[in-house]
Amino acid sequence: METGSRTTEVHLPRRVVTGRGCAARVAELCDDAGWGRVFVVSDGGVEAAGLLARVVEPLAEAGRLAGWSTAVPAEPPLGAIDALAARIVSSGADAVVGLGGGSVMDATKVAALVAARGGTAADLVGIGRAKRRGLPTVLVPTTAGTGSEATRVAILTDQASGTKVGVVDAVLLPDIAVVDPALTDLLPPLVTAAAGMDALVHAIEAFTARVATPLARGLALEAARGIGGALERVCRDPADTLARDAMAESAHLAGMAFSNSSCCAVHALALPLGGRFHLPHGVITGTFVGALVRFNAPAAAADYRRLAEALGWEALEPEAWAGRLDALAERIGLTTVLRATTVPTAALPAMARDAVANRRLMDPNPRPVTSADAEAIYRAVLTVGP
Ligand SMILES: [Fe+2]
């Protein structure tokens, strides 16, 4: 990758704490940072899994809990962010902790901005609209995949159009990321598989994006190395805590990688599909990545060889590597879930148009994607019906 004389920046959380059990340190970390009282954002699934208490109880005991909400829906609508921001403001919190998967962390990132600046989440949709930091945030992932605790991106749903929209701004990076693999120990198998494969897609796209920085490429290779050794192991044996640890760490590295590079066409194609059919994000990205490796092969073969090698699969040529990625998505159950949804033929042209219109994700792709290309890829991967 030639960076030439182009200007690059480094985007990372201000502080990162990793390690099994480290979620118990959230209260102490808030104390270190000098925040008085904090608001905790989570969801019903995290609470039901018994994870909320691991963060809320130490905060309550330390007299630092301003309040909490488990009302964040999956694929959070913009309106839910505004409601959450209002609760944070009325709690008088000095900082916000987001404990959950990508939806919770993305909601926390944007709600902390809205709480500090007023206005609505809709005002912030787009690139670089916020400019000023919001309330301080601590992000604690409970899945190993999204990497949202390390990124300057939040994906929300515009309920009026039913489409996914992005808030992209360096001020979304958290003050503290707390990556505790123990929080992922009891994840259901499909969530483990989908989130893990999404992390691999983040590493692949971050490494090959036209805007990748040397830092991002190093992080992406290291993430691929960790995922290659751990993803199938943890899918086969959910109790393999060493593999869980490696996945949590690698998903975080992959998040850092794409925050310093970009996701590309796999994510551009995934967003219109996720918005319309509410399929889990990692199910889509994990199932589409093979097709995009085939499509991008003329422009990225050397990079793909390096990634395949990092995964521990030897330096495969793109076609062979795409086949291995397809087989992996199939083996860990993602393809079956995707193919169970029938996508009407009539929906494809608009989905392809929306995907190609996402210049933030399409411009960095190693090879330009036209609407016709996008439609052909949808047809190749999806179950298409009348
Ligand atoms: Fe993703």
Question: What does this entry show, briefly?
Answer:
By secondary structure, the protein is of the alpha/beta class.
Topology of this protein?
Blueprint: E1 15-18, H1 26-33, E2 38-41, H2 44-48, H3 52-61, E3 65-69, H4 78-91, E4 95-100, H5 102-117, E5 126-127, E6 137-141, E7 153-158, E8 163-168, E9 176-179, H6 189-208, H7 214-236, H8 241-259, H9 265-277, H10 281-310, H11 318-331, H12 334-339, E10 342-344, H13 348-357, H14 359-362, H15 371-381, E11 383-385
Parallel strand pairs: 1-9, 2-3, 2-4, 4-6, 5-8, 6-9, 10-11
Antiparallel strand pairs: 7-8
Helix pairs in contact: 4-5, 6-7, 6-8, 6-10, 7-8, 7-10, 9-10, 9-13, 10-11, 13-15
Fe (ii) ion binds next to α6 and α10.
Order of strands across the main sheet: 1-9-6-4-2-3
Please trace the helix and strand order, writing H or E for each element: EHEHHEHEHEEEEEHHHHHHHEHHHE
Question: Mind describing the biggest β-sheet?
Answer: 6 strands, parallel
Using only C-alpha atoms, the radius of gyration works out to 20 Å
Regions with pLDDT < 50 over 5+ consecutive residues? none
| Count of domain modules | 2
Query: What hetero molecules are bound to the protein chains?
Result: fe (ii) ion
The first-to-last residue Cα distance is 44 Å
CATH topology-level fold name of the largest domain: Dehydroquinate synthase-like, alpha domain
**Large-scale geometry:** globular
Question: What is the count of β-strands?
Answer: 11
What is the typical, i.e. mean, pLDDT? 96
CATH class of the largest domain: Mainly Alpha
